[in-house]
Design goal:
This protein is mainly alpha-helical. It is built from 9 helices and 2 strands, in the order H-H-E-E-H-H-H-H-H-H-H.
Length: 209
């Protein structure tokens, strides 16, 4: 999944899109840690054919508790992967490469700035024309080849950016249902201790660990 690859390179807990793959990656690590703990309780003997054979646990109750935690974490990870697949599906429907919300918002700001930046160039050229020729008239200014070229380019850029802007806004609207995280899967991944105990003192202790 592309979003998982992006999160591995630059995970973002606060990005409304990248928080899902970031959470999934953290749960993968939690699963590996739990599997390692279960392995430490596992009794392994050699079978008659010389292959390793699991015969039980040194502390069965603790191993079973860890296994239940592992199953829960795996379920949360799988649910996150489903959400991520849905998000990537929406990007595909829009013909766009999956990315974080920050990247989408940056592109929107960039497109909104295009017209303003070109207008500044036009204004600067108008000032230069006036400074070089105090007698120049407004019709002469606006009919100047350089001014007309910039105005045409600005109009074309605004038309092109307006189309892309509309597409990005529609993309954000279509993504919204997938980003609500009504089951608080990301929060459970980033702050699991909040869901492990109702004891405020214990929560405070674990949160500062």
């Amino acid at each position: 999944m592309i979003l998982l690859e992006l999160a591995q390179k630059r995970g973002r807990r606060n990005d409304r899109i990248l928080r899902f793959p970031t959470a999934a990656i953290e749960l993968e690590q939690a699963m590996a840690d739990l599997q390692g703990q279960i392995k430490n309780f596992t009794k392994i003997e050699m079978g008659d054919d010389g292959s390793p054979l699991v015969t039980g646990f040194t502390n069965e109750s603790e191993a079973l508790s860890l296994q239940r935690q592992l199953d829960e974490v795996r379920s949360q990870r799988d649910a996150l992967l489903e959400i991520i697949a849905g998000i990537e599906g929406i990007f595909e429907e829009h013909g766009r490469q999956p990315c974080g919300m920050e990247a989408i918002d940056d592109r929107i700001r960039e497109l909104e700035q295009i017209g303003r930046d070109m207008q500044k160039k036009i204004n600067a050229l108008v000032i230069d024309l006036i400074q070089n020729n105090r007698a120049i008239t407004l019709p002469e200014i606006w009919s100047h080849p350089d001014i007309r070229a910039l105005e045409d380019a600005r109009a074309q850029a605004i038309r092109s950016s307006a189309e892309e802007l509309e597409g990005l806004q529609k993309l954000k609207i279509d993504l919204e249902p997938c980003l609500r995280d009504e089951q608080k899967l990301c929060e459970k991944s980033f702050y699991p201790y909040r869901f492990w105990t109702k004891n405020p003192a214990r929560i405070s202790e674990m949160g500062s660990a």
